[in-house]
Amino acid sequence: TRPQIAATFAKWGVPHYFTPGCETRKNKGSWVDVVGLMFHHTAMDASDAVNLRVLIHGHSSLPGPLSQFGERDNGVTDVIALGPANHAGGGDLDVLNAVRKESYAAYPPKTDKTHGQSGAVNGNGYFYGWEVYYGIGSDKTIDAIQYRGTVLSMVAVIDKLDELDGSAKWTAKSIIGHKEWQRGKPDPAGVDMAQARADAQWCLDSGPAAAKRWHLTGSK
To answer: Please, where are the H alpha helices in the chain?
Structure first.
């Protein structure tokens, strides 16, 4: 809910913006069983405002919303939708189970089934999605503050999920990249997901004060 997101973002010092209508925005599907968080890039050489507009409304081949969260170049997190969004597409059941159980080492198993194949699992009902505003043209690389803002906002959501879910301890292994879910996807480009998970786990282990300092300065 919006109050839950607001509370955990305040706790972890996540700069954020709630887009109008985010509380009721969703795709035509439903949540199945949220097991993880997925890191994407938009692959748009456009302003943050244009990226956000596309994520809210979608495009000719895919209706919005296209993620729950967006990440601006300056590290501000846009809250786009609190319902399911069209971001994950089809992926591999082995990857889903590995994330659910957090039973993998540095990387989840290599994806076999992918979008459009028989046996692929639609991930939209299982993952919260973060679309980071970069990936093509003059904006090919993720900014450092943008990367840290993405990790910090994911950490804040993991912390809230862990608080709400008494059955299991949530860790950074709930975070995967789109490229780890769907074969042939490059996103998030330039991000080693093992390192992203290590940074997220450091934040979780070190607590909000240290995580806020890292977000602002890059210093651990």
So the answer is: 2-12, 48-57, 93-101, 144-164, 178-181, 193-206, 208-217
Q: How far apart are the first and last CA of the chain?
A: 31
Q: Is 21 left (phi over 0), alpha (psi -120 to 50) or beta?
A: left
**What is each CA distance from 13 to 91, 180, 205, 213, in whole angstroms?**
33, 28, 16, 9
Supply the pTM of this predicted model: 0.96
Residue given tokens 């405002």 in the structure block: 49
Q: What is the pLDDT of residues 102-111, one digit of tens each?
A: 999 999 998 8
User: Residue 184 phi/psi, 5° resolution?
Assistant: 95, -10
DSSP label of 65: P
- Cα 88 from Cα 124, distance rounded (Å): 5
Contacts (Cβ under 8 Å, ≥6 apart) of 121 = 90, 91, 92, 93, 96, 113
What distance in Å separates the CA atoms of residue 164 and residue 150, rounded to the nearest whole number? 21
Asked if 196 and 184 count as a contact pair (C-beta separation under 8 A), the reply is no
pLDDT digits (tens, 9 = 90+) for 141-160: 999 999 999 999 999 999 99
Is the separation of the CB atoms in 118 and 193 below 8 Å? no
Task: Tell me how far apart the alpha carbons of residues 29 and 53 are, in angstroms, rounded to a whole number.
Answer: 21
Distance, in Å, from the CA atom of 174 to the CA atom of 171, rounded to the nearest integer, reads 6
HEC per residue, 94-152: HHHHHHHHCCCCCCCCCCCCCCCCCCCEEHHHCEEEEEECCCECCECCCCHHHHHHHHH
* Distance from the Cα of residue 157 to its chain's centroid: 10
